Amino acid sequence: YYAAAPVRLGGAKVPHLMPGDSLNLQTAQDTDNGYSVFEQSLLRYIAAGLGVSYEQLSRNYAQMSYSTARASANESWAYFMGRRKFVASRQASQMFLCWLEEAIVRRVVTLPSKARFSFQEARSAWGNCDWIGSGRMAIDGLKEVQEAVMLIEAGLSTYEKECAKRGDDYQEIFAQQVRETMERRAAGLKPPAWAAAAFESGLRQSTEEEKSDSRAA
What we know:
mainly alpha, two-stranded antiparallel ribbon, elongated, Phage portal protein, Phage_lambda_portal
């Protein structure tokens, strides 16, 4: 009966059951047949060969805590920084040396008169540079800032290093902070909390120095 009288609607077969018949649907027990496990294993081997983490390569950050995400990012960051220092920084330094040599020949840039070595005698020393690339990805912005502040306060790091990790130049940040503080003061706005604290600390220190000088006199 079913072979002789098929019922179709728009090309799709519509089952027509007789009284007492039942329709049994077959479902696959294993849809991927272990492909997901094979894919993860393959990506882990590729990531290990490239020197990066599995999460960085697969872009799969599911079920990761802050500690594991930070460890994964640091592993990849160490590899990227090594490649940046070995390839990108060396190439940029060579380009800067070529420009500096031409600038010295054209007398656009003049070396100090009391310099011990000429440019040709110490090319590497005159062209020594620290190049700042893109900043490190922040897993948790609050914890990253707290860590940077604690490292600076403990004397284990500097503003230059911490700003470089974020892809910024500390001198540009300092200069911008001075400009913004002066503009806020000129506009009648309150200074930021850190600027007010620094001003009060400097005022307190100068007052104590004046008192000590008056006592000594």
